[in-house]
Amino acid sequence: MADLSIKLAGVELSSPVLVASGTFGSGREGSFFVDLKELGGIIVKSTTLAPWKGKPTPRMCETPSGMLNAIGIQNKGIDHFIAHDLPWLLKKKASVIASIAGNTVEEYVKVADKLRSGGRGVAAVEVNISCPNLEDSSNMFSHSPEATAAVVAGVKKALPKMAVFPKLSPNVTSLPEIAGAALEAGADGLSLINTLFGMAIDVEHRRPKLAGVTGGLSGPALRPVAVRAVWEVHRAFPHVPIIGQGGIISANDALELILAGASAVAVGTANFVNARASIEVTTGICEYMDRHGIASVSELVGAVKTEG
Amino acid sequence: MTEHPDAQTERQASGGGAMLLTRGEVLGHKKYGEHYHSLTIVAPEIGERVQPGQFVNIRCGEGSAHILRRPFSVYRVHKRGGWASTIEIVFDIRGAGTQYLSQLRAHKMVDLVGPLGRGFALPKGRAHCLLVGGGIGAAPLFFLADDLRNEGHRVDVILGARSNRMLLNPIEVRRLASIARVVTDDGSTGEQGLVTDVLEETIERSETDIIYSCGPHAMLEAVSAIGAEHKLPVQVAVEELMACGFGVCMTCVVPLKTKRKASRDKDKEPEEEITYARSCTEGPVFNGASVVWNGAARPVAEDQAELSTAGLAVAQGSFEDSAGEHPPPGN
Among partner residues A26, A64, A269, which is closest to B65 by beta-carbon distance? Predict the structure, then answer.
């Protein structure tokens, strides 16, 4: 029987298959379809210092092999997460990876502070830096090495004992440059990738299909970009654990990301279509490992043969 | 009205109302008029627990070109016959997903999730219920009418559409309603006009106690306003574009007016604030008086319409012009 357990930046997980932030809610909704214990972990919906109301509708549209969304991180805030969602998840024996977001470095740090005092049981934290930076309105944090480093350093200082995974945006010229800045600032690993920026227009009404005008592209359309991003960053930083995500629907998709260099993977948009996708991916990875005589999934990480 | 969503999901979990991911066999396909398709699907676990106003989310085809499921409110449940419960959905062709479904015939399997959402609340005492449906939005009202009649309530119906061919099963409406009013924008069947043109008169004639409505948002807004003038509760089933249908993607939200007590200061009026509620889990049925109608962005691109329950009756239904007048809310 294949051994799926992994150690991700010191965090022991029963499987490399996680569910991506914003695609499994707080876990309650997903638990109708999946026993949360069977997941390597659940990266919960991003949470912010105060509740965020989110953007007006339409918040999404379907695109070829994917979808665009502009939700605006609607969430009830970190206090609600700590008081209601976290205890419930821990009771269900889920491995919880928190996800935090903010509009200023200070907001990220304050959320991290709250996690330090109230987040007992949280296995790791993903830092969603694909948020508009209010101190530099032309940019998202994830688009600048300096802003990325500032957020990561602040969060790491607040959570010195927690594994911190900034989630990087693919909408940059050099992903290794941003990754390097995040690692230098203390990141324990990286989450790759967030959505690609996109836009769709309703030509009849001559209006954007999203109320937020632009949105994030997710789903299978994104997958080759994710595979490339993981491969590129893994090649630059071979010892850094990466949570690979972007368009995974099947076990083969997950294996592509693992072979490119991801130590763990997160299933995202596929959950909307098939709430059991993460479990099917897990089963498929086991079958692949048995078929290829692989004892531990870690043997596959970065094992793509690009030469010869 | 609004309720803490956690309480909602917990209740679903404990109350046997859990949603299921399942496969069902198509029992048959038929058409209502030239415009609407009907599929009856053998799905006993869903059929036995679904309530009027709830919906199912159906995978429409293989592959990943169109990845999202399409939501359909349940038109009818059939519990008799040789088959365990079946559910029936109706739809018109609005895109690749509904095109695919329209070609399914007996014995094909469909992959569906349900029952989803919160359905209509039935009156406690005997009541005169007025059901107001526009276009394909009338679909869940047939299931509701069946349940209301079974419980001994009086059912009156106003059925409207842009034209004759867009009216959903007016013959059946005449059969099951005490008073049936059929209106079309162009007068091709029934009276010419909008459902709201005959609403007040029908309320008075039938001594309505409660209104149930589903259709384009502009219609729901107008029905809610008239209901409020007559001090009648109005339950509306809204239609929003949705991806997951089970509460995680946060795309299908509807702006609701909610009252929040001002902190500590008891003399102060409770502050009204607007919160976004998920139509898939906290809805799709809402109190019409709570919805911020002009905050619900319109218009929706036609190629996205089938991503809403009942297909955003919407883009094409009655009230098309008035629906276009609402500017989207600013940021």
Answer: A64
- Whether the CB-CB separation of B181 and B200 falls below 8 Å is answered with no
Q: Does B325 touch chain A (CB under 8 A)?
A: no
Does the ipTM surpass 0.90? yes
Partners of residue A91 in chain B, C-beta under 8 Å: none
Selecting from B249, B302, B307 the residue whose C-beta is nearest the C-beta of A62 gives: B307
> Phi, psi at residue B268, to the nearest 5°?
-70, 145
- Rounded mean pLDDT of A89-96? 97
Q: Which domain holds residue A179?
A: 6-54+71-195+218-300
Catalytic-role residue among A11, A17, A131, A190: A131
Q: Which CATH number characterizes residue A141's domain?
A: 3.20.20.70
pLDDT in tens, A191-203: 999 999 999 999 9
**Considering chain A, what is the average pLDDT of its residues?**
95
Active site residue A131: yes
Domain count of chain A? 1
- A66 domain-assigned: no
Is A83 part of any domain?
A: yes
Q: Could you tell me which residue, B267 or B148, shows the higher pLDDT?
A: B148
pLDDT of residue A36: 96
Domains, chain B, in order of start with CATH, read 5-116 (2.40.30.10)
**How confident is the model at residue B313, as a pLDDT?**
42
Edge-to-edge strand ranges of the sheet holding B191-192: B191-192, B180-184, B154-161, B128-134, B210-214, B234-237, B285-287
Task: State how far residue B126 is from chain A, nearest Cα, in angstroms.
Answer: 35
CB B46 within 8 A of CB B87: yes
Residue A200, domain member (yes or no): no
